[in-house]
Structure formats: structure tokens, C-alpha cells
User: Fold this.
Amino acid sequence: MAVPVGVPERQAPGPTTAAAGGRVEGRSLPQMAWRRLRRDRAAMAGLGVVSALVLIAIFAPVLTWLNGYSPTQFNPGAIDPALGGVPKGPLGGIGAEHWLGVEPKSGRDIFSRLVYGARVSLLISVGATGVAVVLGTVFGIVAGYVGGWADAVIGRTMDVLLSFPSLIFMIALVAMLPNANRPLLLIVVIGFFGWSYVGRIVRGQTISLAQREFVEAARALGASTRYIVFRELLPNLAGPILVVATLTIPTYIAVEAALSFLGVGVKPPTPSWGQMLSDAVDWYQVIPSYFVLPGLCLFITVLSFNLLGDGLRDAIEPRGDGS
Amino acid sequence: MISMAIQSTVRLAAVVAAVALGAAAACGGGGGGDEQQAGAKGGTLTLLQTDDFEHLDPARNYVTNSGDFGQRLLTRALTQYKAAPGEAGQDLMPDLAVDTGQANEDKTVWTFKLREGLKYEDGSPITAQDVKYGVERAFSADLPEGPPWPRQLIEGGDDYKGPYEDKGGLDSIETPDDRTIVFNLKRPVPYFNYTVTFPVFGPVPEDKDNGVKYDNRPFSSGPYKIEKYDRGKELVLVRNEHWDPKTDPVRKARPDRIVVKMGIDPTTIDQRLIADQGEDQTAINIEDVEPSSIARIVNDPKVKERFIQGGSPCTRWIGLNMSHKPLDNLKVRQAINYAVSQESYITSRGGPVLADPTSTIMPPSLPGYQKFNLYPNNNFKGDPEKAKQMLADAGYPDGLELTLTSTTESGAYGPDQAEAIQQALAKAGIKVKINAVSASVYYTEIGNIKRQDDLVFYGWCAEWPSAETMIPPTFDGAFIKPQGNNNTSQYDDPEANKRVAEILELMISDPQAADRAWGQLDRQIMQDAPIVPLSYDLRSQLIGSKVTGAFGAQMFGGHVDLATVGVEQ
Assistant:
């Protein structure tokens, strides 16, 4: 609607006022944000843990090669069947052989399962966040920039999704498609139900950005919609999107754990923290470590992502600028 | 019928005695045997349970724990199993009848004569007509899930629709007088006097029958009557003053009150019984303890004393779906038999306290049982090398991929058990994909022969001490049906089918020879390896320190026999 005829797109990227202004301030914006972030100790701690976690997930095979136990391998020698399959030795079998002990009944190495569980957690939460961010950004911009009926349709769809009992629906869907590729299904399903959170934020930001002078100016100079969206809006949305994505990941880690806990997460024998917690519930009195370890992993991961996300928000949108 | 699968029914007698851990042997409980056999009366016995009883309506009561409760406390039947630990618990006793039944020459007509002085909870007399009416109710479509035997065995059973639709009754059940009942059967049934131990062969007065609602308040002919039944929460029994112990050779009826508390988490039940405080001292849990509680029980001598084990002579196995490639190949099936580790399956369920490994179809307690292991696998630990070699011989040197059905919930066929099988087969190069379905649809899912996966968990209990109720329903090709199928291997071997018919014939003339023949047939079928036998179950229960005379009743799946249990005051 706002695309003036006769202005070829290729000619559009001429230095508009906004772009010129952006060059002076914009180049230092990420740098300023990084500087602010570095001063935030909590956020840096979060970043440290998150980085470590990513490394652990990537190098899971190396770590399990070091301790010598695959996450799916049963170790009947490490448990006592006569006692209901409790691990031999104190503290759930923690020792030089099994660093964090073994699971009761199967004797699988808990360290190996936690390390591989990190892979599952990160893969699914990051993947689902990617789906949610892509969908949320596209629909958010369309709703915010196009407005009118598009905004109405997308807005109502987001309302429906937000008020939907999504966890129950996810359980039903995963149960209905028993033979689907579980991780992929979880990514798509979690992401699909989550994009409206991203979408709402992007829509709000788009509406406010679209009325700013630099966008008006670009439009007045005859810039195409495509140019405005990709060169004017998106770069300015990157910050909020990054913040929202960082804060979404821990939520999805928790959702994945919840689904696994309820028995509709990844399929056994693929290890998952939620599944381990669910197995450990019956054993918390006998082997507290079995219950505590996956819980601790989940807690630390979610906390670190949240600290990092909060820090990022403060760094990118310093006080007063946030909505 | 789902109920016949192991999950539910366990009716079987046993040669293997009820094994009790430690000192609390057969006579069970907190202390000595004899004086408790004499037993003091009075007090309140509490049953702690997670779930409500499935059905107490005698026409529908077909599950071991409900059977124990219903038959031993509320509804009498024509005959009954003796209340005794171990082997003696399979002895048949007269109950309402004066003896254990009289059969004609070819065992097609059975006559039972009722005792004198039998009364219901309101003092009215129990008649042969009431027993006939009770059996007829089982034919009603409104009252499903009971034993299939009335329909399968009684003449005219195929067409009769129950007393609500067909007021005339079933002519093949005759009542020449108030105290005589005669059953005309479709075929010779040498064990029919065992069949009539089921509560469906107990009396229901027609004027008290309120259809489906009868389940909430069966009219008692036993030593107790229902004072209050809040489904899923609480059930209270008080004495039935009109029950005369002189007419009942089986039931001791020691406690004054029996309170069943339901809806309690299984681990909470274990914790309460281990702690043994207050009213929990006179409580029992007739279900298995949780695997996570076993260490605390076994490691504490004082708790271990209160640990009761009963044999439940049922077999659990993995059915190998022979209608699927490559399971139609004998060598592949044999390879799987070598590869599976019964030990890790049993460990996943809680270890040797809860089940014993097995290599046969028949449980050791059945008459005619033969001990053999055609596929020795390192003492039940699994032999992946042998399995690999067999697979290579069969033309699968690179292994193969199979699907296994499990339940999503934990239990005997839960995710842990599926993973134990998956892991054992993986060592032999067989990749197992687990298809987990909700326990509520498990039997529907695997009973559909078109949709059935390659491997399915299954199990079966004999209904009375004869393999007659075990091998034909699960291995006779004639029993393969499109839905609700129990022949989980879809095994249809002409020779085995012929042998089944011959042995059923032989049972009439020479029961002992027939028993031996079942044992031989077991071996013959296992040579075809249609299943991988896994375990037979032992039931492990905890009782409070003031509970007396408790032992596992074999005929009720090893649940504590409620006919004789009492409490100290």
C-alpha cells in the first residue's frame, strides 16, 4: 500500500537520514550493549554456564568415552537385584567408576545420561524457539505493519493460541502420532504453540517503529515495503527478538521436561532430564541423588538462561526505553 | 477377554509353596502359627489400596484381588478353595454345596446339593434358584467383564441373553428342588467343580437385583455385609449376623470390621506399613510392594518379618508375531529367545523378590509341569553371541529391526521393561523400536491381529489347576480372532492344534495322563519358539505388626488370604 510506483527497489538503498544516523549510533549499539552486559555479573555467570552447557552437549560422546559408559548401556553389576535393583555402594553408587552413580533397576550411568540429556534439552528448546521466533517475527511484522484485516486475523489467532490449554493439546497430539520423529514433532508442536508470545512483542514494536521518523522518511522517499521491513524494521527488532528468544529457551526446556515427565517426551532409551525426574520420584527416599541430579541440571540451566536473558534485556533496552 | 490376561486374573493352584521371606513362613504374620490358626476374633482390619476393586458384583468379579475380597468375605459360591498356605491352597472344598459336586459318567452333567440353614444377610434362606439366577445374570450384556465360563461351558449359553431380556431362564440349569442345582454342559468338563468356585456361581436373590447398581452393594451371603461403600474412597464391612460358621468350612471371619481405604499412593502405602504406627499396625496391602521399597524392607529385620510372599503361578512372556516377517522364520524366533535377558526384565520390575525367571509356558505349579530350557542363555542373562550366530544362519547377519508394544505407564509392561528388552536385543544386533500405548488400550491394541506389533508383552494365568485353561486359549490356532486375540504369536500349528484336541479328550478318561501330556505339549510348542517366556510372578506384600494368620493364597494370585486373616487387639 505504501509502495510508490516508479521507484526501483535497487535504487532505494541510498543513504537516507535514518541510515546515516544509524551509522553513527548503530555501529556502536551492539558494542554498547556488550559493554553493559559485561558489567552485569549475573548475566555473565549465566552466559558462562550456558556456554559450558552447549560445549557439554556438543562433546557428549567425548565425555561418555572418558567415563566409559554409553547412556543406554545396562550395568547389572552396579545394582543389587535382590534389593529391588538399588545401586551398590553409598549415595546411589557415586564413585570412581560411576561419577554420579547409576540408575536403579537398570544400572545405567547417570553422568552419561545427564550429558546426553543436555543434548535433548538444548536441541528441542533451541529448535522450538527457532520455530517460534520465525513464525512470531513474520506474523508480528505483518500484523503490525500491514494492520487492518491482517492485524485483526493474526491478533485473534494469537489470542486463541495464548488462551489455549496447549500442554494438554501437546500431550494429546504426541500420543496420537506415536510413530512420528519425536524430537522434530516436539520442536514443531512447542514452537507452534509458542510463537504468539514472540508475535505480540514484535507486533507492538513494529507498530511503534512504523510511526518513527526514519521509517516515515524512507516511505516518503519511496522505499519499497520490502526495503522498509528488511532494512528499517528488522535491524531495530533484532534486539527485542534476541531478548525474547533467550527468555523463551528456558521456558521450552521446562516444557520439554514436563512432557518427558508425563511420558510423552522423547522416546526411550534416549535420555532426557524430565524422564529421569519422573523415574526418580519413586526413589527419592532411597537414592536422593538420583532425584537431585537431573533436578539440579534443570534448575541451573533454566536459571542461567533467565539471568542471561534479563541481562540482555537490560543491556539492549536500557531503562526508560522499554515498553 | 482382557480379564483373562495376567494383569487381572490369577486363579491357580500351586505345587510351589507360598514362599515367605525369612521367619514369617507359611503361617505368616507377626508371630507363631498354631494359636493364630485358632485365632482371636474381633478388632478392625484395614486394607490400604490405591485403586478401587474392579467389580464386587458376583457376575462380574473376575480379578484376583476382587476375587479374594468378594469370595472370601461377601459372596459364597458352590465350591471354594481351601484357606491354607502353599500347596494346600489349591484343595477344593465344598462351600454352599455339601460336597464338591457329582458328575455323570462323561462329565457333561454336574449336580450340586446345597447345605441346610444357609442364609443371606437379612436372614432369608439361600436357594438353588438364587444360584441359578446368579449364573444367568452373567449372560446379560449389561454385566460384562465376568468369567467367560458360563457362556462357554453351559448348554444353550451361546444364545441366552440373561434374565433381564429372557425371563424364562436358561433351561440347561435345572433346580429340581430348593437345594439342588444341575448344570447341563456343552461338552465334558472334568474340572467343572473347580469352575464353580468363581463368585458368578454364587447366589443372587432376584428381588435384590438392581442390575448395574448391584456392583455397589452386593447382597451378602458371606460372613460380612457392606455398611458403607464410597467408591474409590472407602468401603466398610461389618459382620453378617446371619452367617452361620457351622455351614462354612472355609471362612474364619476373625475381625469384627474390615475397612478398605482407597486412593492412596502406592509408595505412601509402603511407607505407612514400614513405619507401622497406630492403626497401620492392623493394616495390610494386598498388592505388591513398590520396587523402591524393597531395599528398606529387606534391610530391616523387623520389617522383613512382616513381608509376605505368595506364589502367583502365572507366566509372562513376549509374544513373537509370526504373521510378520522375519518372525515367521524359526531361527529368528530362536535367536530372540537366546538374546532376551529374563534377569534384566525381572530386575526392571523390582528383582527376584517379585518374580522368578522362566523358560516354559506352564508355571511350575501346574500339574504336569516339566522343567526344561530349550534356549539356555547364560542362566537367564542373555546370550547375544549365540543369537547373532543364529541370525546370521537365518540370513540376517546385519541384524534386524522390530517393534515392541509397551504401556506408557509403569507396570509389568512399562517403559522400564521395554528398555530392558531393547537393551538385551541390541546386543545381538536387533534394533527394537518401542511403541508405548496407554495401559487402558493396551490389550485392545495388541489384540487386534492386523495392528499387532512384532513383539508384545503378554501373560496368562491358569484359572484352575490344569493347563487346559492356559495352553488352548493362548496357543491353539482356532483361538486366533481379529480382535481381542489372546494367541499373541498368532501361532497356528496343525500338529499342536491336533494335540490340544486329543488332550482335551484324554482329560475325560485319564486326567493324570492328560496333565503329563500338557507338559509334553509345552515343550513341543516351545520347540517352535512362538514366545519368549519371561517370568512367573511372586506377590510380595507388607502387613502391619498386629495382623495375624496372613499368608499368600495361591488361588487368588498370592494376595493375602482374607478368609483367615485376623488382628491382635
Remarks:
- Residues 511-527 of chain B form the longest helix (17 residues).
- The CA atoms of residues 103 and 110 of chain B lie 4 Å apart.
- Residues 314-538 of chain B form a domain with the Dipeptide-binding Protein; domain 3 fold (CATH 3.10.105.10).
- Chain B touches chain A at residues 267, 271, 290-296, 298-299, 343-344, 346-348, 350-353, 381, 408-409, 415-416, 418-420, 422-424, 426, 434-438 (CB under 8 Å).
